Here is the input.
Amino acid sequence: MRKTAQAAGLIAAATLLFAARDYGPAIGSRMPDFSLRDQNGATHTLQSLLKPKGAVILFFRSADW
Amino acid sequence: MELEKNKAEFDKLGLGLAAISYDSVEVLHNFAERRKIDFPMLSDADSKTIRALNILNDTVPKDSAFYGVPFPGTFILDAQGRIVAKYFEDDFRERYTAGDILAHQYGVAPAAAKTDVQGRQLQLTASASSSNPAPGERLTLALDIDLKPNMHVYAPGVEGYIAIDWKMKDSEAAAAHEVAFPASEKLYLQAIDETVPVYRNHFRLTRDITIAQEAKIKPLVDASGNFSVEGTLRYQACDDRLCYVPQDLPLKWTFHLENFDRQRVPPELQRKPPGQ
Here is the structure.
């Protein structure tokens, strides 16, 4: 049983590697709210970042690696 | 950081900008000082927002210091905070760049690595969204083409004529993606009594390239750190009376390879694996 689960896991992992995967919420859905501090300690929320035409929110791996 | 250079462009378009990672405020502060970054870099140190978006990199072992990092990518939001587009790569070593997103999402003309090329019935400017890409970065190349008055070239889909075609030379330095052709216009040609898809006056072709990984591209740069990619634009121009000899215009873009910044924050600020 465990073997089967492992095999299924491997197949799932392989599929993830080779199939284009859809990242994050669907197009058209609302970005979840957040409240996070920036490099100077100031707090930003989704609302505060949205400008008249919207916003570009980038996720990156790390600033230290 | 490539984003900092393009910050003013986002501002001008009326767009907010932020970059989120799992780093602590202290790590981000150290990085931003070193790299002179002043757009907001936000700390999601417990990966709460990353999880809420379902973009936690679940291939990282839980006992690793890197557990908590997201799959890197970009969300484009409208003024109400709805997601209108997403830019994610399946290979985490390949990244969309701000310049590329500006070109695709907002139609901003790539303005770097410009060269003018004079052809017989047209002239063009070749450009790129950045002149100093890092390994794995995805850039946009553009051809801004101006045909002489009364000239047209055939658009893809034409039958029986040579459609404009942009080929890239096979290169170890960068992989070329498909060409994006603008909508063509239908032109009635009395001489042949046919309606055909054409381009006239000014039009722009774009295509992305992804710069090779560091190990592959490093040996290809010259002593000053530069490398080039080349291609050809093939077209046949016609006016209302006759068609001219098909042309092959050589194209070339020269870039300066940006090296990865491997400087780390002081040890006391570095992220430890959980439980340490």
Observations:
- The mean pLDDT of chain B is 92.
- Chain B has six helices and 17 strands.
- Residues 25-35 of chain B form the longest helix (11 residues).
- The first strand of chain B starts at residue 16 and ends at 21.
